[in-house]
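Box 3.1. Reading complex inputs
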Amino acid sequence: RKEVEQDPGPFNVPEGATVAFNCTYSNSASQSFFWYRQDCRKEPKLLMSVYSSGNEDGRFTAQLNRASQYISLLIRDSKLSDSATYLCVVNGETGRRALTFGSGTRLQVQP
Amino acid sequence: DVKVTQSSRYLVKRTGEKVFLECVQDMDHENMFWYRQDPGLGLRLIYFSYDVKMKEKGDIPEGYSVSREKKERFSLILESASTNQTSMYLCASSSSGTYNEQFFGPGTRLTVL
């Protein structure tokens, strides 16, 4: 089983739609969770951290479900500029300093 | 603004050549990382370094080595390039503390012929 798994998509949604991505992780001891965004032919950039209590940043909401070992990202009122690949990131292997990146979910918002 | 720069955006090399990819960060970060990114496989960690002259293997270190002689610079070396090392290579850095935000460079698209 992969350490971090995501549905690759693509998710094709109209402008204004609400879309949600899930990501599952294998290490129950993981403590740190993030969503990164990667635009086409660009480097990944941090979108938001994911906290145990869930957190919101404008149109974006991230949630963590430890019992089921998944994190989610909800995007409300999608904009064309939200089109990108969204990477789920977790500290995977216990004791390892580096993060583990999922393969990403591609979102295409259409006019 | 954190800046991570990589020596080349595009590089074409021949099988068997020794290849150096350079990464420099200007924010005095302790941690530096090298990844490769391939379609369908996502980012895979090759090596990382948490201090000068310190390094740890990532998930796919075979065929690669690294060097960190100065805090701001982290080099990835392909001792004898092979066609299966054709990929996008991304460098990242982060401040001390285990799971802080990673800042990425623009990437180097390496093609090995």
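In summary: Chain B has a mean pLDDT of 93.
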